[in-house]
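Students often ask why inverse folding is considered easier than folding. One informal answer: many sequences map to the same fold, so there is more than one right answer. In these notes we will look at a single instance of the problem. The structure comes first.
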C-alpha cells in the first residue's frame, strides 16, 4: 500500500498517514525503524551512484534508507512538494542546496539577517569558492532588485527571519528572481507548512530545520530540502550521497513521530504565543514586542496574507537587556533559558546586538544597521513559546521579570 493511493486531503491526515503503511510482513501499524546500513543485493546489482534510480532496491543507507524514505515522503506530502531530501541537520540541508545551485563565477543574493551559521558561511566560506554574495534586507523588494546582476543564480530568504521576525514577501520575490533568470530558496523553519507553503507561492526550493517545529520535541537534529517540480536526484547524488551529511534512521523515525502531531501543536503554539505576546505588550518593564500575529508588527498585513498560522516565536526588548538576561536566566522555573526553538518546552534566550553584528551579520551599509536597530536595538530576547498552559508560562515570566 502506498501513500499515493490514499485520499490524504487535510494536513492533520497527511501528518499522521503520509509516508506510512502497515508493514507487509508483520502487519505492524507503526512504521518500522530500519537501522541497517547495508542490504542484501541481487547478484547483478550495480555499484554506481550515477546509474542509481529512486526505484532501485536499497543498497547502502547513505544512498537511501526505508525509514528516511518514509520521512521524506511525509514531508513532501505536507509541503506539497514533488521530492524531499533529508539531511543530518538544517545546516547540512542549507550547505547542500548552496553547493548544488552555485558555481564559481555565480552571484547569490542572501538575506542580511538569517540563521547565524548561514550568515557566517556566506561572509567567508561561500566567497572563498569564488561565488559572489550580496546581503540585502529582503523585506525591501527594491533592495533585492538593485542587488541583481547578470550572473545572479539564487535569491535566498528566511521568513520570518531568525531572530528579528522580519518577513519577506515570497510571491513578490519569486517573481523578481524568475524575471532575472534566478531561483528562489526559502528557509521556512519559523513559518512551517502550517503557516506558509512557499512552493505554492512560487519558490523553487524550501528548506526546514526539522530540529525545530516539525520534529518538535528537541531530541533529534535533521534538515530537509524540498522542490515542487524538478528532480532532486542530482542534489541527492552530489550532496547527500557524496558529501555524506545524511540523517540517522533513528532520528528520521523520531522526527516522523513528531510530525504526526505537528498541525495540532502549531495551533497551540499560536494560541499561547498570541496570549503571551499581548500580555508582554502591556507589561511595564517591556520596551517592545514583535510577533507577526500582533497588529503592532510592522508587517502585520503581509503576515496575515502569507501566514495561516503565526507560529510560536516572540521577540521582545527590555531596558538593560544583557543584565536582565542574567537575572531572568536564574529566576525562570518552567521556561528553559536555552537556545533553539519550536520545542514543546518553552525556551528563551537573549541575543545581544553587538555580539551578533560582530560575529554573524557584519552589515555592509548604514541602512542595514538602521533597520536592525529599528527592530532590535541593543538586543532582543527570542522566546519560543511552548505547549505548557499559557497561564503558567505567563506566571513564570512575570515572576522572572520582577
Ligand atoms: C535552527 C535553524 C537552522 C539550522 O538548523 P540545524 O538543524 O540546527 O542545523 C537553519 N535555519 C533556521 C531558521 C533555524 O532556526
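Output (designed amino acids):
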Amino acid at each position: 500500500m502506498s501513500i499515493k493511493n490514499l485520499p490524504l486531503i487535510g494536513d492533520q491526515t497527511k501528518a499522521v498517514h503520509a509516508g506510512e503503511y502497515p508493514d507487509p510482513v508483520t502487519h505492524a501499524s507503526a512504521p518500522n525503524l530500519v537501522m541497517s546500513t547495508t542490504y542484501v543485493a541481487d547478484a547483478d546489482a550495480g555499484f554506481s551512484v550515477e546509474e542509481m534510480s529512486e526505484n532501485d532496491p536499497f543498497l547502502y543507507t547513505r544512498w537511501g534508507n526505508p525509514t528516511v524514505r518514509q520521512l521524506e515522503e511525509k514531508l513532501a506530502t505536507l509541503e506539497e512538494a514533488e521530492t524531499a531530501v533529508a539531511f543530518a541537520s538544517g545546516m547540512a540541508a542549507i550547505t547542500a542546496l548552496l553547493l548544488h545551485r552555485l558555481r564559481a563565477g555565480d552571484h547569490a543574493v542572501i538575506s542580511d539577517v538569517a540563521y547565524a551559521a548561514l550568515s557566517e558561511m556566506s561572509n567567508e566560506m561561500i566567497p572563498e569558492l569564488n561565488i559572489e554574495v550580496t546581503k540585502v534586507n529582503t523585506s525591501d523588494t527594491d533592495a533585492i532588485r538593485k542587488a541583481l546582476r547578470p550572473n545572479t543564480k539564487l535569491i535566498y530568504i528566511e521568513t520570518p527571519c531568525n531572530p528579528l521576525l522580519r518577513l519577506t514577501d515570497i510571491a513578490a520575490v519569486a517573481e523578481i528572481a524568475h524575471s532575472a533568470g534566478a531561483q528562489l530558496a526559502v528557509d521556512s523553519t519559523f513559518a512551517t507548512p502550517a503557516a506558509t507553503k512557499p512552493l505554492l507561492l512560487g519558490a523553487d526550493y524550501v528548506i526546514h530545520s526539522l530540529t525545530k517545529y516539525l520534529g518538535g520535541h528537541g531530541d533529534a537534529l535533521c534538515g530537509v530540502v524540498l522542490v515542487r517540480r524538478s528532480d532532486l536526484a542530482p542534489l541527492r547524488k552530489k550532496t547527500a550521497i557524496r558529501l555524506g551529511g545524511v540523517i540517522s534512521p533513528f532520528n528520521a523515525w523520531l522526527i516522523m513521530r513528531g510530525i504526526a502531531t505537528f498541525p495540532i501543536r502549531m495551533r497551540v503554539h499560536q494560541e499561547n504565543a498570541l496570549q503571551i505576546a499581548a500580555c508582554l505588550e502591556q507589561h511595564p518593564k517591556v520596551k517592545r514586542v514583535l510577533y507577526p500575529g500582533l497588529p503592532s508588527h510592522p508587517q502585520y498585513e503581509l503576515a496575515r496574507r502569507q501566514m495561516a498560522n503565526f507560529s510560536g516565536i516572540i521577540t521582545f526588548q527590555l531596558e538593560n537587556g544583557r543584565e536582565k538576561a542574567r537575572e531572568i536566566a536564574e529566576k525562570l522555573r518552567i521556561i528553559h533559558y536555552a537556545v533553539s526553538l519550536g520545542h514543546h518546552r518553552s525556551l528563551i534566550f537573549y541575543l545581544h546586538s553587538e555580539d551578533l553584528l560582530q560575529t554573524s551579520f557584519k552589515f555592509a551599509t548604514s541602512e542595514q544597521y538602521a533597520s536592525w536597530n529599528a527592530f532590535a536595538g541593543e538586543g532582543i530576547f527570542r522566546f519560543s513559546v511552548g505547549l505548557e498552559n499559557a497561564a503558567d508560562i505567563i506566571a513564570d515570566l512575570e515572576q522572572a521579570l520582577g
